[in-house]
Design brief:
Length: 300
């Protein structure tokens, strides 16, 4: 049985490898994420409510909204969790390929697994598409076209939602692929379409992609988002070395092994799920608070 939203928020870790990673990224750009965990604590953080009766009323309404399958809250959670569940396997494949490249006796691994750059590129693209779908589900709207979605990133994303996109750029883009990650991903999309079709995440989310040409939609989504990602990198001056220096505090590695570190982080962290639950929780509680206040107004 799927966990309730109360369980999801209450069991988010206050400190683990994922949280350390997000804090490390947050220190270099943009410094606005707070790891709020716990259902009632999230209610207080989002609404400012301190009265126990107010918190209980918002809590009960939020549970009702989440449990109604007509709303998109559970669906959004599914997409965030699906992406992170797949990351474990993708990270293992990337790690095996890198080991095969660098250790001669294990070169057979290099023949058995996709190139690490290919794996990381497709992972990044599918995460962006999953984010677009999850955002649409969460807001109860038809699946957005890529350009409209990127407008929402620029205008609406903050807190855990913005942190998730920044982690995408840093952990799934800059760290494994380097400063030219946008060009590398673009070339992969153009040349590796069959690999995308064989990807397990693509097969799980493809039904929600609102286009007869699923690969074309993925390419258009990446093209639209690449403008935001490029602008973010330029604005913040973030580089692979800055990311590496920030995470050196909790992972010991040499700067020439950042591709290994990226694969390790894919396997060992769940930043998409963690911040996704926080995003859903915040949106849900905002709506529950509106509903509670409207109900009180009607009652006079």
């Amino acid at each position: 049985m799927a966990k309730s939203i109360v369980q999801l928020l209450d069991t988010l870790p206050s400190d683990n490898l994922t949280v350390k990673l997000l804090r490390a990224i947050d220190r270099i750009a943009p410094g606005e994420w707070e790891n709020v965990v716990g259902f009632d604590r999230t209610i207080q953080a989002v609404t400012g409510a301190t009265d126990a009766n107010d918190i209980l009323a918002i809590r009960n309404r939020a549970i009702e909204l989440y449990n109604d399958p007509k709303n998109g809250y559970q669906s959004a959670i599914w997409y965030y969790e699906t992406i992170d569940n797949a990351d474990v396997a993708l990270g293992a494949a990337a790690m095996a390929n890198k080991i095969g490249e660098k250790i001669g006796i294990l070169s057979f691994l290099n023949q058995m697994t996709p190139k690490a750059n290919t794996t990381q590129s497709i992972d990044l693209c599918l995460k962006i598409v999953a984010e677009l779908i999850a955002y649409s589900k969460l807001n109860g709207i038809p699946i957005l076209n890529p350009k409209d979605f990127v407008t929402q990133i620029r205008e609406e994303y903050q807190g855990p939602s913005l942190m998730r996109m920044i982690a995408l750029v840093t952990v799934d883009g800059l760290l494994p692929l380097g400063p030219d990650f946008l060009q590398i991903v673009g070339k992969t999309l153009n040349n590796k379409q069959s690999v995308i079709r064989d990807n397990p995440v693509f097969n799980q989310i493809s039904e929600a992609i609102p286009s007869p040409d699923k690969i074309d939609f993925i390419s258009n989504t990446f093209d639209a988002a690449s403008g935001w990602m490029d602008g973010f990198v330029s604005k913040t001056g973030i580089t692979p070395n800055k990311i590496a220096n920030s995470i050196h505090g909790f992972i010991d590695f040499s700067n020439d092994s950042m591709d290994f570190v990226a694969a390790f982080l894919d396997q060992s962290t769940d930043y998409y799920r963690h911040t996704g639950i926080q995003t859903v929780g915040r949106n849900l509680i905002k709506q529950a608070n509106i509903d509670v206040n409207l109900s009180r107004l009607r009652q006079g």
